[in-house]
Amino acid sequence: MVDDRRLRIAFFGTPDFAVPTLEALLASRHPVVAAVSQPDRARGRGHRTSPTPVKAVALRAGLPVLQPDRLREPSFREQLTALRPDLGVVAAYGKILPEWLIAIPPLGLINVHASLLPQYRGAAPIQRAILAGEQDTGVTIMRIVRELDAGPMLARVARPIPADATGRDVERDLARSGAELLVEVVDAIADGRAIEEPQDERLATFAPKITREEGLLRWERPARDLHNQVRALTPWPHAWTRMHDARVLVIRTVVDDEAAIGTPGEVVEASGDILRVSTGRGVLRMLEIQPEGRRVMSAREFLAGRPLRPGTRLS
Fold it and tell me: The pTM is what?
């Protein structure tokens, strides 16, 4: 086997999570022949159309970029086939890939998945792990098969989830770890050293897509669970509650007391830097909040403009 064999890589990715993997491949011995990304979307308050993070990196590197609206478009199939990729690499592309596409590269497609498979298969493994209060997570490089995230594993690396880490924090860490691991796996495939391990279906759990409705804080739940909800849903869609019928995003919290105090949703202290709310078990302290349509504020800034009386009920 030739140690310096170079594989032609077709890269599939869209958001920030995928960028470190694309950059690592660009710095590797393997040529990236194209980047496939989702179509550009309108983003932000101005609803301006901007390139996906992967497209922006690809254009700077001089790569061809393919952005099919539908993967079944004949022109996309022809373009991808003409690139003659040896291997496809996927990192948060955002669409399920059909069997005909998986079959185009002779070495198939592999995926950077942000969990320790077979746990948390699906669209939101990072958020679901934090919501569940997991203390550890990781990245798995797996072969893509027809069944969702069920293919054999080529490598895994574990990482702790710090107690106050948000979804954004964990995503950044796993994106870097996954990029490093991915290149090691591609090298191993090229050199004939890769070993595939089947997943244990008995241990499989699932991580369905996060919805906006999951952001509502239900104060009858324990403070620890609500804190995990705030962490998991940062940066999107954010946890939220209602104060005086106004919707307020809750950006950063800490569990202040795990003993039951007051009625769930009742403000038990609101002065200076302190904004504490009773829950079904314990007290949650809000450190940063964001009134709808306004900037993020510290508890002190928020209370200076919107005094709250102890006993006020949030819903």
Answer: 0.94
